Amino acid sequence: MDYDAIIIGGGPGGYASAIRLGQNSKKVALIEKDKIGGECLNYGCIPSKALIEMANSIGYLKDLPGVNLVPSIDLEKWQKWKWEMINKLTSGVETLCKAYGVTVIKGDGKIVDRNTVSVAGKNITATNLVIATGSSPVKFPAFEGVSYNREILDITKLPKTLLIVGGGYIGIELGTAIAKLGSKVTIVEMMPAVLPGVEKELVNPVERKLRTLGIDIFVNTKVEKIQRNGESFDAVLSGEKKITVENVLVTVGRRPNTEGFGLENIGPEMNGRYIRIDSHCETSIKGVYALGDVSGEPMLAHKAFYQAGIVAQNISGKDAEVDYHSMPYVIYSDPEIAYTGKKGTRETIYPLAANGRALGMNSSLGTYRIYFDDDGTVTGAGIVAPHSSEMISELTLSVEASLSVNDIALTIHPHPTVSEGVMESAEGAFGKSLHFKSGR
């Protein structure tokens, strides 16, 4: 065999498994047809958060009392900076792969059989095969000329009006950012509420902020038709409501990439559209692994990073299994939503409005929630607050390590910080939060 493992797909799961295998002194070939880093680094996670960061900075200053700000936004210059930043990241990842002895091959990899992949005009062989082909946005050919995540993140001119089809996390994140930059945004969601699947008490502060930003929200509503009309789009919503906008962003989900690379030549068991895997991330075919978006929900880059370590361990001869009970989720809304674990028999709630650092940031919408069992063991948490994405790791560790709420309450947190609200929320389990008296 030419290699210990061939990896098809150079996104977070693919390049991470290549690096982890390289760290274990395995001989690896990593095949990527586009850019190392995949959707996340090039067209999703990183550029979207860069846009959100710019929008939040502008929105923060515009809302701050005593500040009079009329921003001038040069999106062409920002795009140039964005791609320079992304290229530094992706080239850094590629350099790191090569430093660990990984052979990076640019091209379309096609599975020939269980041990063979055709790429760049020749066949290469390996003992193990890792499928990390990611996912693509669900598209509607009838909606001609609309934007998806790649197109909207590459805009060089801000649309005056924007219709977002889909009120999931991508729609909410990008809708919030673009509204802060000055566009009139309308979000249409076919479910009864935006961010379907997320606990309503976590969504409520975000929904209030969306309306404060002037975003029109239609729930229980479908987009029946979208038609290009010169430089604008005419959309028909259920109930025969019609709106005209300058641009349309469709964010109704993603589907796994399981076609076009010869998967049918080995025929692994499928789980709907996804490749079925076991707790070792191994498919129904011995020595063939799948990870990341192509292996099932949730479609999270950090889940792919985690799975990459599991795959590398198993290929390296160590028995490793996944354990998702403390998986963190983050929505980069305003305020951010972050949650982990699951609900217990009890919960403690601490309001963001009682946190001095948050008030100094002119932010009071949100809560800290810690879920725990009767014996005090932390089972999960949900935070709606500025920078909750940076705070959820403490609570994810608490779930992973089966810590108690008392362990968190007794941990000294710096003051003034938004993170000390985590400590005070834990103190609330005993009715003794320092800066908030609950009804207990």
Distance between the termini: 67 Å
Largest sheet: 7 strands, mixed
Total helical segments: 12
Average of per-residue pLDDT values: 96
Helix content: 25-40%
**What gyration radius follows from the Cα positions, in whole Å?**
23 Å
Oligomer type = single chain
- What number of structural domains do the residues give? 3
Q: Look at the helices and sheets and give the structural class.
A: alpha/beta
**Quick one: how many beta strands?**
23
CATH homologous superfamily heading of the largest domain: FAD/NAD(P)-binding domain
- Uncertain segments: none
CATH class of the largest domain: Alpha Beta
CATH fold description of the largest domain: FAD/NAD(P)-binding domain
Overall morphology: globular
Assigned CATH architecture of the largest domain? 3-Layer(bba) Sandwich
Structural description of this entry:
It contains twelve helices and 23 strands. It is an alpha/beta fold and 440 residues long. The protein has three domains: 3-137 and 255-315, FAD/NAD(P)-binding domain (3-Layer(bba) Sandwich), CATH 3.50.50.60; 149-252, FAD/NAD(P)-binding domain; 328-430, FAD/NAD-linked reductase, C-terminal dimerisation domain (Enolase-like, domain 1). The longest helix is centred in the N-terminal third of the chain and has 25 residues, at 75-99. It is globular and about 65 Å long. The model has no long low-confidence stretch (mean pLDDT 96).
